[in-house]
Amino acid sequence: MRKPRLVAWTAGPLTLALVLSACGGGGNTNTNTSTAPNAGSGNPNGAISIYGTEPETNMLPANATDAGSAKMQEGLYSKLVGFKPEDGATYNEVADSITTTDSKVWTIKLKKGFKFHDGTEVKAKNFVDAWNWGANGKNSQLAASFFSDIQGYNEIHPKDPDGADGPQKAPDPTVDKMSGLKVIDDLTFEVTLNGPFSVFPSKIGYHPFSPLPDKFFTMSPDEFAKNPIGNGPLKFVSRTPNVDIKLTRFDEYSGAKKVNFKDLTIRIYSSQEAAYKDLLSDNLDFMEALPPSAKAGGKFEKDLGDQVLRANLLSISALAVPTYVPAYQNPNVRKAISMAINREQITKTVLNNTYVPADGLVPEGIEGYEKGACGEACVYDPAKAKALWDTTGFQGKVTIMSNADGGRKEPLEAACNSIKNALGVECEFLPATNFGQFRQVVNSSKLTGLGRSDWSADYPSIENFLVPIVKTGGSSNDARYSNAEVDRLLDQASTTADKAASIKLYQQAAKLAVADLPKIPTWVEKGIGARSKKLTAAQLNFRRQLEYSSVVVK
């Protein structure tokens, strides 16, 4: 039994309204460097504080995949490629060039001069060793499956014989290196994939593909996690659980994402309301999402004026339906519940038009999005829902579990009421104390009913909204869903060199998966946050994160 990666995100703000264009995850073989927006003038010795949620894990790169961790990861590590905040297009960050002739074998050359925070040089082996460690099944990293495209992954991460929830344990690997990774020289390495994969040069911009310093391999992972060493624009200072995470500028950083402030504090809140009060009093500088009470009647616009931050985001909100709970294994149960949720009403009233109804597993703005992919199952129809429900023989009550902070409680309580009214079944919202506690329930396969399972793009590709979510054993397959035909299509798509043909295969897989409703799509956030008066500039990127290099402090 091996547990998969968690899913989560929180919203992120910006000071300039951005419209994200459709952005696929196609190949990037150029050698050019693109920088994030210039922060301009300001106080380079200033300090900022941003809203945060308690991370679930020790925050090693291949383990730290929740939103609370991502805010630290984004500052602490620089990857081979970065993403332009406005459209998700890739540019070379640590990589000097990424080249291929067949989309299967890739040669990656690094820029000289990148350093880790301990002063050691970033070399090819730091990427290769980190990827091998993250993929190794015995290390049980939540994002290990993101390395599955690399040749040799199945040997270093043997298949669990009875799945993540079965009593049997996966066998230990007999190798500690993937055959598809080869160091050529200090600044060059080669990656051989299982087949042609056009998304690869975008995927490696995700946090699990960060490099690790030599020191990591001389100590225990938990010890390293207490004082991590990265290669990004910010270096680690301290972490106090349930209080804050502190970072400070790394002045020897040589990359494109230099920051124009000195210190960053990620303040951990259990209540968005408390954070919003701090924001209004300028005791907090940045929130990526506002509480429902602030959104009601457009109150936030009166409160904040030009401090309001808007963006279109690449994300989906959904409810995972655990296939390991017998009561929810009937597909008609899942479909009836989905049809009983009044998405239009909830997004207009409870969410005050800051969300729109979701109509599939892939959001608009991702290349390959198909309008209405979910069909009638995502359209509110209480009469049809009740008729279908009455055929299921469902016993007991429907439950929806989520962390109650971050503005999650109100819309999910409204969804419960909608289900109750339409189906005539008792529905209960089960709040967890915080996000970390909630994710422990999900990752331990202990959901007793539906569970919030939101997703924001790690990189702008349709692949990212399917493979981790609905593939058997996927790192964020909260439902523990398995469909052999979906898996076959995803595998075929992920080894098809032609991008257009690959997207068509992903679309076929998406249609099959959403028809099974292992995740019930609910709504898509427009993206509304705010800054304090202390910040004169800030920007939200497509992953719902603050683009640190865009911040200007008075």
What's the structural blueprint in terms of helices and strands?
Layout: E1 47-52, H1 67-76, E2 81-83, E3 90-92, E4 95-100, E5 105-110, H2 124-135, H3 153-156, E6 181-185, E7 188-192, H4 200-203, H5 221-226, E8 234-240, E9 244-249, E10 263-268, H6 272-280, E11 286-287, H7 292-295, H8 299-304, E12 308-310, E13 315-320, H9 331-339, H10 343-348, E14 355-357, H11 382-389, E15 398-403, H12 409-423, E16 427-432, H13 435-443, E17 450-452, E18 455-456, H14 467-470, H15 484-493, H16 499-516, E19 519-525, E20 528-531, E21 535-537, E22 552-553
Parallel strand pairs: 1-10, 15-16, 15-17
Antiparallel strand pairs: 2-3, 4-5, 5-7, 6-7, 8-9, 9-10, 11-20, 12-20, 13-17, 13-18, 13-19, 14-19, 21-22
Helix pairs in contact: 9-11, 15-16
General description of the model:
With 554 residues, the protein is of the alpha+beta class. Among the domains are: 80-214, Dipeptide-binding Protein, Domain 1 (Dipeptide-binding Protein, domain 1, Alpha-Beta Complex); 315-525, Dipeptide-binding Protein, Domain 3 (Dipeptide-binding Protein, domain 3, Roll). It is 24% helix and 18% strand. It is built from 16 helices and 22 strands. It has helices spanning 67-76, 124-135, 153-156, 200-203, 221-226, 272-280, 292-295, 299-304, 331-339, 343-348, 382-389, 409-423, 435-443, 467-470, 484-493, 499-516; strands at residues 47-52, 81-83, 90-92, 95-100, 105-110, 181-185, 188-192, 234-240, 244-249, 263-268, 286-287, 308-310, 315-320, 355-357, 398-403, 427-432, 450-452, 455-456, 519-525, 528-531, 535-537, 552-553. Strands 13, 14, 15, 16, 17, 18 and 19 form a 7-stranded mixed beta sheet that branches. Strands 1-10-9-8 form a 4-stranded mixed beta sheet, covered by helices on one side. It has a 4-stranded antiparallel beta sheet with strand order 4-5-7-6, with helices on one face. A hairpin with a 4-residue loop joins strand 4 and strand 5 (105-110). Helix 9 runs antiparallel to helix 11. The N and C termini lie far apart (52 Å). The model is unreliable at 1-39 (pLDDT under 50). Keywords: Signal. This is Oligopeptide transport system substrate-binding protein. Residues 93-476 form the Solute-binding protein family domain. Residues 1-24 form the signal peptide. It holds the Pfam family SBP_bac_5.
